[in-house]
């Protein structure tokens, strides 16, 4: 694809971006092809086509003059761009060198395509053990480097976003009893100062691609600073909502050294938040999240 012929942003991408940011983003989305082609020209990249994924950016596959496969990523939110790149550089400054180029004025970056293709290489057997080890490595890096990376805090995220939306949705839900049983176990939830680190906070499976040699790479964070137990709970719940919750909870505790009793309340908070969101939006994963929450409640009953 010649840079000058990059078509409009795919409808699915437009829909996700406007759902996330609102219709105010329409003008930016219309201008995104020109923004990306201009940046690609500046960096002598050949554009291949859109990678229609994600909810907070526009992605285009590209190749540089040496034939290296890249993802050209444009963010409408300059603050999110800045935070994401700071954390990627913190985690991958030696191991993977993810950030190949960045244009701060345009909020566009060229990222190495992990595994050579969008989504990464084939996932190896027992991938979750490898991912757990990579999360722990990132938390260790983050614990040492958090003072140099200015980020929002988990404390504010929970107080200003998570708790208010749970409270609002509780008034409308058909699952109030189940949700309140879960929230009972979060009443004394608190962060531990000795576990403060840089959090990924968006540990869905699609955000952890694999390299050709079978190594996981953490990408697309929604970074903040806070208790590492939050990330382990997010990974436990959302890495694969359709199964493996109890296994990941045990694996999270073994890998991190954080007691199950410290991770479990975060799991119950996040799964309640997910349940109410899936219900409100008509998401087909609602039944899966109900099963996750029920399984966690059974574990909590035995503690």
UniProtKB/TrEMBL annotation:
Keywords associated with the record: Transferase
Keyword set includes Zinc-finger: no
Source domain of life: Bacteria
GO terms for MF: transferase activity
Name of the protein in its database record: Phosphotransferase
Entry-linked Pfam families: Fructosamin_kin (PF03881)
KW Transferase (keyword) present: yes
């Amino acid at each position: 694809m010649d840079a000058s012929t990059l078509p409009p942003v795919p409808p699915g991408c437009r829909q996700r971006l406007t759902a996330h940011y609102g219709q105010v983003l329409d003008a930016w989305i219309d201008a995104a092809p020109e923004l990306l082609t201009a940046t690609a020209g500046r960096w002598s990249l050949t554009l291949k086509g859109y990678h229609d994924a994600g909810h907070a950016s526009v992605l285009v596959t590209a190749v540089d003059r040496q034939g290296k496969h890249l993802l050209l990523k444009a963010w409408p939110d300059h603050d999110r761009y800045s935070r994401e790149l700071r954390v990627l550089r913190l985690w991958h400054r030696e191991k993977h060198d993810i950030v190949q180029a960045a244009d701060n004025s345009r909020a566009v970056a060229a990222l190495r395509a992990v595994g050579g293709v969008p989504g990464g290489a084939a996932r190896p057997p027992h991938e979750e053990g490898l991912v757990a080890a990579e999360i722990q490595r990132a938390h260790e890096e983050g614990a040492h480097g958090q003072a140099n990376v200015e980020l929002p805090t988990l404390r504010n995220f929970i107080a200003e976003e998570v708790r208010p939306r749970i409270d609002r949705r509780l008034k409308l839900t058909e699952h109030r009893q189940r949700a309140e049983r879960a929230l009972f176990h979060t009443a004394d939830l608190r962060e531990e100062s000795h576990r403060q680190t840089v959090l990924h906070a968006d540990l869905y499976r699609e955000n952890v691609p694999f390299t050709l040699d079978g190594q996981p790479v953490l990408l697309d964070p929604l970074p903040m600073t806070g208790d590492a137990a939050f990330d382990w709970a997010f990974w436990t719940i959302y890495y694969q909502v359709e199964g493996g919750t109890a296994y990941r909870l045990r694996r999270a505790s073994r890998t991190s050294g954080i007691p199950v009793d410290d991770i479990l309340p975060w799991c119950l908070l996040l799964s309640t938040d997910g349940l109410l969101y899936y219900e409100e939006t008509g998401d087909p994963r609602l039944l899966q999240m109900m099963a996750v929450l029920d399984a966690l409640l059974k574990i909590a009953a035995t503690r």
